[in-house]
Structures are given as C-alpha cells and as structure tokens.
Amino acid sequence: MFTEENDILLKIRKEENAAFDLLYKFYFPSIAYYIQHNSGNTADAEDVFQEAIIVLLQKSKEPHFMLTASLKTYLFAIAKNIWLKKLRTNHLVYQASIEDLEECDFCELEDFEERISLGEKISALMFRLSVSCQRILRLSFWFGDSIETIMEKVGYKNKHSASSQKNKCLDKMRELSEENLSLK
C-alpha cells in the first residue's frame, strides 16, 4: 500500500477533517460515476459515499484491521455493496441468483450477461414510472402476487379496477421502452 494511503488511513483513525477532504477529493468522483450510471443520482452518490466513509472509519478502528487492497479499491467496494443493497431493497435492480445460473447450463456467459443487462434496463424504465405503477408491477412481476392480492394491498375496490390499472402501467412501460429504443 502506498505511503500516502497509510497517512490518510492514520488521519482517518484520528478523525482528522483533512483526511476526509482527501477521500472526497480523490475517491468520490469514481463512486459518483458508478452510482449515477447505475440508477442513481448525485444525492444518492453523496449518501452512499458518506455511509462508506462511516464503515471505513469503524473498520479502521478495529484492532486487527489491515488493508489488503488500495484504499480506493476498498472504499469503492464498500460503496458498491451499499448501493447494490439499496437497489435490491427497492427492487430497482435485476437480482441474478444461483437459479439463474443453473437454468443457464448450456448458455454462454454472454447470454447470462445479456439477461442481467435486460434486467437493469427494465429497472431503469421502472424508475421512470409513477410510484403506484412501480408498486403494482413489482407486486405482480417481482413478487408474483395475484390480481386479488394486488387489489387488497393497493386498495382497489374490485379486481377489474386493479387489472385495468395494471394494464395501464404495462402500456406505459411499453411506451417508455419504445421511446428508449427510438433514442438509440
């Protein structure tokens, strides 16, 4: 590890403001770029960066803490994990699982990456829908809820209303998808 990084780490342990300024100056831009290109914005990046700094501060004070990678790599990994957890919690990202890999016995890695990419695109489109449409589509497709369950959870008076709203949300999703394709 570089001497500069050791110095920064020592200053972090002492909670010196100068160390946090250096972290922000040198490491925030790459984290912000990552988050902004993965369904986030600048405010999200700032929140995640602050959370990552807190984790780094806590870890650095542990007696046996030792960096095995560069400080930039370590901080980026923390931030990436925090952001991915937020996306999963909000169901904004396609969650690849072992089952996906098992289904893909004979497919190429590229096919699997395309499936993940498609999931990320769908997540980005979902983010552009109204909150109520996001909820209805998540309940329907992510959680597999029946129209009756959606009706109860969202508060529709009958199945027809819930089904009609679900169809309107799907139509809006298709429209956004077509707009997205025409932009390319």
Description:
This protein has helices at residues 3-13, 17-36, 42-60, 71-89, 98-103, 109-127, 131-142, 147-154, 159-183. It is mainly α and 184 residues long. The radius of gyration is 21 Å and the shape is elongated. The protein contains 9 helices and no strands. 76% of the residues lie in helices and 0% in strands.
Structure classification: mainly alpha
Share of helix, binned = over 70%
Low-confidence stretches are: 93-113
Measured distance between first and last alpha carbons? 43 Å
Sketch the major β-sheet. Answer: none
Number of strands: 0
Please give the oligomerization state of what you see: single chain
Shape: elongated
